[in-house]
Amino acid sequence: CCAENYKALQDISDTSAHNTCKGMHLLVAEDNTLNYEVISELLAMYGITCDHAEDGSVCVEMFRESSIHTYDAILMDMQMPVMDGLEACRTIRSLNRPDASTIPVIALTANAFFEDAKKCLDAGMNAHLTKPIDMKKMTQTIGNFIK
Predict the structure, then answer these.
(1) Which helix (H) or strand (E) holds 129?
(2) What span, in angstroms and rounded, lies between the C-alpha atoms of 97 and 40?
(3) pTM of this prediction?
(4) Which is more confidently placed, 13 or 44?
(5) From 55's CA, which of 33, 36, 71, 98 has a CA 20 to 30 Å away?
(6) Under a CB-based contact definition with an 8 Å cutoff, are residues 146 and 53 in contact?
(7) How far, in Å, CA of 13 to CA of 15, rounded?
(8) H/E element holding 110?
(9) Strand, coil or helix: what is 135?
(10) Are 22 and 47 contacting, i.e. CB atoms less than 8 angstroms apart?
């Protein structure tokens, strides 16, 4: 854990990724409270704020009830109770609101096989990132979707 946080602090020196993502607001679907706390602290180091959805159904509801363009992207865990990340993404994509089809949804999961990444993309996600979190890769991925 300490080694990963030290690496994340070193990665902050990448000012292009830092500047691209600074000021963003994300919705993070993560059922493990400790994982969410780590993710939110790492994001905060980059000037990114976030809201926590405890499972996929809460994520869908938070997105549905939010104002258009409240969130710049959604980070989605795959294995959650009530509704998993794949079903949550499909549900978000089917919502009748203009940003439902365009908000970047990024899988953030321990499932690292090619088949897992394919399932995520088939469900409508834009990218697939694996845990443990590589902040440089995450900010670069998120930054790719900024217009």
Answers:
(1) strand 127-130
(2) 27
(3) 0.87
(4) 44
(5) 98
(6) no
(7) 6
(8) none
(9) helix
(10) yes
Q: Which two tokens stand for residue 101?
A: 């089809």
Residues 6+ apart with CB under 8 A from 45: 8, 9, 12, 135
The tens digit of pLDDT for each residue in 84-98 reads: 999 999 999 999 999
The SS3 of residue 8 is helix
The answer to whether the bond into 132 is cis (omega within 30° of 0) is: yes
Write down the pLDDT at residue 133: 87
Question: Per the structure block, which two tokens stand in for 120?
Answer: 């995520």
Instruction: Supply the mean pLDDT for the chain.
Output: 89
Q: How would residue 122 be classed by pLDDT, with cut points 50, 70 and 90?
A: very high
Cα dist from 4 to 8, 42, 60, 110, whole Å: 6, 10, 30, 15
> What single-letter amino acid sits at 101?
S
Q: What is the Cα gyration radius of the chain? A: 14
pLDDT at 5 over 90: no
| Side-chain-facing half-sphere of 83: CA atoms under 13 Å | 18
| Whole-angstrom distance, CA of residue 109 vs CA of residue 116 | 9
